[in-house]
Amino acid sequence: MAAGFGSTACRRAVVVAAVLMGLGVGGCGTLPRAVSEPTSELTGIHPCDPAALGATAPAPFRDSAGVTFSCATLSVPLDHAGLRAAPQQPGQLSLQVAMADNTTAPRGVLIWLVGGPGVPGVGLTAVIAHQLDPAVLREYRLVMISSRGTGTGALQCPQLQQVMGDSDQTVPPPRAVQECAQSIGNDRRFYTTADTVADLETLRQALRVGTLTLDGASYGTFVAERYAITHPDRVSRLVLDSVVPHDSFDPLAIAVFSRTAQVLRTVCSETRCSTDPAQDLSEVIRVRHDGPQLLAILSGLTGGAPRLTGMVAALHEAARADYTALDGIIATETRNQAISAEQLSQGLHAATVCEDYSWPWGDADTPVPGRASAIATTVAALSDAAVFPYDRATAAGTGTVLTCAQWPQTPVVAFPAGADLPPVPTLLLAGDHDLITPLAWTQHEAAHAAHGHLVVIPGAGHITQNNGNGPAARASVTEFLTGP
Fold it and tell me: Which CATH number is 43's domain given?
């Protein structure tokens, strides 16, 4: 979401354009013999079907270092013991895993965590493996996992899926949200990041390694951060690209608002335009009251390689009452949002975001009737400068906020307040043109990383490691992962 988890970028920057990588420690990746852990198994191990990895050629898929991949199934409990105070619910889920076959890679396992939430990782293996530097792929064993509720096990919410497609911020009708929650039922409480973190720990045990290196993009950073905080001794390094802060410090994503003005003005300067696109955007919203829609469109235009030049000109024309170009961009972007639940499940996206994030009303266990007034109170306290170039109606009416305001009351798994990332080497990457996860979020997370190094990539949009964003971020990641 432009409010935080980046499903638009997952398809456009990750699925279409292509995404990237992560880390673990060498021979020390094997568990010490004295450690006793629950038995977790990867079953049905077999050479991967290239199509399952997202490869187009029928021959066995090899990464850029020449390594092949095996696929397997990881069985995990629907309800992990110890996560909740309530009695454990029965049931198992089968998660798909793809693993590079270089099992003796000197630096151990690197898990690349995709965004969304709602995107299956295994289907992006070919894209990510071909974008990783061969040196990284020789040093690490790349592993991909399709999280619970994604891919072949996608949570299905047909009406919500049709309305939102790959967008975080498109405003859905209340009925679509309600029908989605009803179709998932009470099991919706088992599709949170806490459950994904527990699944990831089960995967580590099944791989028989002591530590993991994690590379997360967009929502994948949220998973990586919360895994690292939950299991600080089981992480060796972290790459956090286009960061969603682990503590949900910006519940209405107001940082996106000010960043919009900065990025639009930067694009104007880069193209030597003579207008003020931020002021133009403000004027269009004042006249058309379409802030949430324009926020969704602008976010989509920075999902991967930024495409804002035409938008700057269209906003200037629209501010002078010629909406032809702007409406054309909106229509095109809306058509391009269409996507299946198997590619990005909006049902999972809603369940995870609404139950993980902090909101003006508190969390998902807050009764629904009081949520609207909590939003109104919070928004009324915002200054004009805080919401510019949008307005208070935009702050109160984004697709993510309205979806979660209508999400049924659901018990949540508490996450410890005041937590910091463990003191492991951490690379934080931000694109200076990203309007999905703004720079302020990455800076906020960097303040919680004792051994963090923040790199801002000029001209890059969401997910800086994406090929469309140029080589700078990938070079930084390669140096970070293969250095001493």
Answer: 3.40.50.1820
